[in-house]
Amino acid sequence: MAVDITTDLSAVRNIGIMAHIDAGKTTTTERILFYTGISYKIGEVHEGAATMDWMEQEQERGITITSAATTCWWKKHQINIIDTPGHVDFTVEVERSLRVLDGAVAVFDGVAGVEPQSMTVWRQANKYKVPRMCFVNKLDRTGGDFYRVLDTIVAKLNSTPLVLQLPIGAEADFIGIVDLVEMNAKVWRGETQQGEDYVVEEIPADLADKAVEWREKLVETLAEADDAIMEVYLEEGDVFDVPTLKAAIRRATIADKLNPILCGTAFKNKGVQPLLDAVIDYLPSPLDVDSIVGHKPNNDEIEIERQPSDDEPLSALAFKIATDPHLGKLIYVRVYSGKLAAGATVLNATNGRKERIGKVYQMHANKREEIASVGAGQIVAVMGLKDTKTGHTLSDPTNPVVLESMTFPAPVIEVA
Ligand code: GDP
User: Fold this and answer.
1) Average pLDDT for 383-410
2) Smallest Cα–Cα separation from 6: which of 407, 335, 355, 343?
3) pTM for this one?
4) Is the model more confident about 37 or about 274?
């Protein structure tokens, strides 16, 4: 039976995973779905076994995740992963997806570092002020070098990285990470792609000095970005407990002042669970980002602001049209305000036509869930829309709004 989805918005993360082709976006996404598949949904077991079987079947057949938005769960948080094309030819599509996500993880190849496509997508994300973390992947590869990649992040992306982790070991001997927030080590001993949990240990003796040095850098960088941390730091030094540091890192990341840096190898399943924790800890919920501003239909000068609340009139942006082998045409939308209900009549405020919402689905890695209605902040696939294209706004017929229009083709972004 179709369910109504209303969620505590503070527990929702709408994120994209962006990368240069081959950096490991697909593998990282698959590992995320693997771990979240064995995770728990709020109050109910989330069919873990089914998800894993499905992943194995799909991998055997060589099929990868193709949904434009996939919903998964991690530690009582709902993560909607919005597909962000990595290929530079899809620049317009990248812009469309950047428009509807609240935060992103940029995946870099631990050998190649920052590559041209990553620079392009990074600049597009700058344009939309998307809070971002970096995951330095493939550290198991010969030539993998975390510190060199870090240098390329500073030099090529003009970003202020906040290093939260250091690698333990390198290349084939890469076994885990030093966590500079908790000041411990997280170590994966096994060689497995099936996924295993890490063991929390003391920081290895040969990395102790380096860990202290980088912890100092972390706190100093954070203090530069956050007055509350600066005040305490100047008076008392590094007396911060883990929740205080995490809250400050979250503030600075959401304000787009700092980019947390994490590392691992998605392929060998090392670093993925801490990456998921960081998505929850540091990337924004729909409540943390600016409310959306649109305008009156046919009058760009009259601005209308909508809060991310179910009590507001409906406004939703169509961002992707896809063809599902079983369902036919699906239109992915982000609901910014109000409720979107199956069977309801809405106004396409962009073209002035009435539309009837057919079925509404939340897409998961292994199944789609039919839902009766969905609230603000959510991303769903809608069936039955006839005249709606990407970039169009679905709106309450009595309170129409056109969300900020995007001009296409997108402006050319120069690559240095
Ligand atoms: P995408 O193009 O960014 O989606 O990259 P993929 O996830 O498809 O990965 C490209 C190639 O790199 C594949 O052959 C992966 O198996 C491999 N790969 C991905 N992550 C890692 C990693 O952490 N270590 C190693 N050694 N290979 C990886």
Assistant:
1) 84
2) 335
3) 0.90
4) 274
pLDDT band at 318 (very low <50, low <70, confident <90, very high): very high
Question: Residue 351: which H helix or E strand, with range?
Answer: none
Question: 261 pairs with which residues across the strands?
Answer: 134, 163
Instruction: Please indicate whether residue 22, judged by its CB atom, sits closer than 6 Å to ligand 1.
Output: yes
Q: Is 313:296 a contact under the CB 8 Å cutoff? A: no
- Position 145 pLDDT exceeds 70: yes
Cβ–Cβ contacts within 10 Å for residue 398, how many? 8
Query: What's the token pair of residue 260?
Result: 């947390």
Q: According to the model, what pLDDT value does residue 60 have?
A: 45
**374 pLDDT band (50/70/90 cuts)?**
very high
Which pLDDT tens digit goes with each residue over 117-140? Answer: 888 889 888 988 899 999 999 999
Beta strands in 267-344 (DSSP E): 292-296, 299-306, 315-324, 328-337, 340-341
Question: CB of 106 closer than 6 A to ligand 1?
Answer: no
Cβ atoms of 132 and 252 closer than 8 Å? no
Euclidean distance between CA atoms 52 and 267, whole angstroms: 16
| 138 C-beta closer than 6 A to ligand 1 | yes
**ipTM value of the model?**
0.99
Side chain identity at residue 326, one-letter code = H
* Ligand 1 neighbour 265 (Cβ under 6 A): yes
What is the rounded CA–CA span in Å between residue 98 and residue 79? 16
Identity of the amino acid at 208:
A
| Atom nearest to 28 CA in ligand 1 | 7
Best CA proximity match to 176, nearest among 186, 166, 165 = 186
Residue 26 among known ligand-binding residues: yes
Tokens of 220: 């100093």
User: CB burial class (10 A; 0-12, 13-18, 19+) of residue 255?
Assistant: middle
In whole angstroms, give the CA distance from residue 242 to residue 260: 15
Q: Is 160 annotated for ligand binding? A: no
Would you call 105 helix, strand, or coil by DSSP?
A: strand
